[in-house]
Design a protein that fits this description.
Largest sheet: 6 strands, antiparallel
CATH topology of the largest domain: OB fold (Dihydrolipoamide Acetyltransferase, E2P)
CATH superfamily of the largest domain: Nucleic acid-binding proteins
Number of domains: 4
Number of helices: 6
CATH architecture of the largest domain: Beta Barrel
Distance between the termini: 78 Å
Strand content: 25-35%
Number of strands: 28
Shape: extended
């Protein structure tokens, strides 16, 4: 018996007088449909024949996909069809991942050296769960079937010229693609891949310049239509092509670091526009458009830039603390302020409430203090510091007297710090001393145990 179309959840029979067949399930004393389709009953069994079938892709299937995302070491394809099937795949198998080592039998520094966005590819499924993975390396029929020039959008044609196997008939661009035998409805093009060969020195030099040297200017859906190109101009000073860009006034250009990956140029402009008129704002990205975690903002006046530094340096945005500073000011590296004369003592495991005066007073009971330094982070103690005592004082006795003493509810740790990062009494240049390294570890450990993030204030 066949009835009209039923939807999931519709009662189609009675249990246990009837048994559940494909497309049905038992719910109490009822048989209900679990798919959209038509009901069939035979020999006391009720089933529902699904009206719309979906495909479950399996290992070994051959798929056709379009490259949608290109990262450094992997790419993502949108599956458009499965060879030999005329039904769509299930939702979780609409996208497939492709590793850089599975593209072609040749070393690729990154995915964009053999694939580009919008390339149409043929690939073999190597894993169906938990994510769909495909491979183009081990089958000559697999690879790029159609490709567009990433500069002007013209269809690329196979043309061997050294390491390059593709040529744009419009703009003359030469590049490499991991070609399938049947590229462009042709045959034998996989031989142009140079499987197993090394790249020439000129090609290696091109690859070694990194992603920025191979970045494409046009967006993925823009075609060359004869209009003049308007190249973006960033207020960075200098520039190539013999044209010098106008530099911003001193102190007007800011570097912003520590940005969350979700903060783009528009969000950065929104945050910094509250402090004055900007002439430029950009978040730096990689080839795939992913934020690199830093950007630049240029104001028309230095006063506005100073206001932005005062208001936003150290501010949390999307859970991350950003850093804002003058982009043109060189950061002093390796320079240390003059240290007081005398023997240097390390004092750690301090309470965050213990101040510099308390640190000096602690040691002053046992020796003449010539200087002290409490290590801070954004105005807050990091839980350790250094005290300098007169050279004629017995440093070992001072350490013995204060080590383990309770200060502000915490038992402190004390030792003689090594000078210059080398052995006691020796050189060592500007290297950080082992005691300072130990202090940083103790600060991260919170006095012991596994490394962890700083929690609430210690009592």
């Amino acid at each position: 018996m066949t009835t009209s179309l039923v939807t999931p959840g519709t009662k189609v029979g009675t249990h246990p007088a009837q048994t559940a067949g494909p497309g049905t399930a038992v719910h109490g004393t009822d048989l209900i449909a679990t798919v959209l389709g038509h009901v069939h009953e035979a020999d006391g069994s009720v089933s529902v024949e699904a009206m719309n079938h979906v495909l479950d892709i399996k290992v070994g299937d051959v798929v056709i996909g379009i490259v949608d995302k290109v990262n450094e070491k992997n790419a993502e394809l949108v599956i458009v069809s499965v060879e030999g099937q005329n039904v769509p795949p299930v939702a979780e198998q609409l996208r497939a991942q492709l590793r850089v080592t599975d593209i072609v039998d040749r070393y690729l520094h990154q995915v964009s050296d053999g694939l580009r966005r919008r390339d149409v590819c043929r690939a073999v499924v190597t894993a169906a769960s938990p994510v769909l993975r495909v491979d183009m390396r081990n089958d000559a029929a697999s690879g790029v079937l159609h490709a567009l020039c990433h500069h002007c959008g013209t269809t690329m044609v196979p043309d061997q010229d050294g390491d390059w196997n593709m040529h744009c008939p419009n703009c003359g661009e030469r590049t490499f693609r991991a070609l399938a035998d049947g590229y462009g409805m042709g045959e034998g093009h996989a031989a142009l891949n140079g499987a197993g060969k090394r790249w020439t020195g000129a090609t290696e030099a091109h690859f070694s310049k990194g992603p920025a040297a191979r970045a494409s200017f046009l967006a993925e859906d823009v075609r060359e239509d004869g209009r003049p190109r308007a190249y973006p101009r960033f207020d960075t000073g200098g520039g190539g092509g013999g044209q010098r860009r106008q530099r911003s006034a001193p102190g007007c250009r800011l570097f912003i670091g520590g940005l969350d990956r979700g903060v783009d140029t528009d969000k950065l402009r929104e945050i910094f526009s509250a402090h004055g008129d900007m002439t430029d704002c950009v978040v730096m990205t990689d080839d795939s458009g992913t934020s690199r975690g830093f950007g630049f903002v240029t104001y028309g006046e230095k006063a506005h830039a100073d206001a932005a530094i005062a208001a936003l340096d150290g501010k949390r945005i999307n859970g991350r603390r950003i850093g804002v500073r003058d982009a043109d000011q060189k950061r002093e590296r390796g320079e240390r302020k003059p240290q007081p004369k005398g023997t240097k003592l390390y004092v750690g495991n301090l309470s965050f409430d213990t101040g510099l005066d308390a640190l000096k007073a602690l040691v002053a009971e046992h020796a003449n203090v010539t200087g002290a330094d409490l290590v801070m982070d954004n105005g807050r103690s990091k839980g350790f510091g250094f005290v300098f005592i007169a050279e004629d004082a017995d440093a070992a006795k001072v350490v013995e007297a204060i080590n383990g003493k309770e200060v502000d509810g915490r038992k402190i740790r004390a030792d003689i710090a090594k000078q210059g990062g080398g052995k006691r009494g020796g050189g060592g240049g500007n290297r950080r001393s082992s005691r300072e390294e130990r202090a940083k570890r103790e600060e991260a450990e919170g006095g012991g145990g596994k490394r962890r993030r700083r929690g609430p204030k210690r009592s």
